[in-house]
Write a structure and sequence with these properties.
- There is one protein chain.
- Strand 3 (about 55-65) and strand 4 (about 70-80) form a beta hairpin.
- The protein is about 35% helix and about 20% strand.
- The protein has helices at about 40-50, 85-125, and strands spanning about 20-25, 30-35, 55-65, 70-80.
- The protein has a four-stranded antiparallel sheet, with helices on one face.
- The chain starts with 19 loop residues before the first strand and ends in a 14-residue tail after the last helix.
Length: about 140
Amino acid sequence: MTNQPVSDEHIMLDEGQPYIQAESSLKVHNATTFRFNKEDHTLGNLLRHQLLRDPVVHFAGYSCPHPSEPYFLLRIQTDGSKTPQVALQHASEALLQEVQRVEGQFDSEVAERQKELRERALSGGGGGGGGAMDTGN
């Protein structure tokens, strides 16, 4: 018997466990704390950064209460022109667009580099990278 956790325990939602839970603040207007289950700093920091780009967001911060607990808390406060839920939705959509843009650039650069390598190989220029440096003379 071992104390080692099950491998997918920190990434797979338990049966019936919601991915996101929201709790509106009773003390602060237009503020909500979201709990993201089975997520960590990676998503928390991305969302916080994207939320802070929105001029209606007064505050966005996240915390991971304990390293062995796979969730983070994200608190959002807006000026009231849109709810924290809508601000979160807009930030999520903007992040998805950014990821798609970066993925497109990456794929384009990889295709360009592969084309260059094929052209070099066909012209007899080598280009394997492990040999003598080509000075172009």
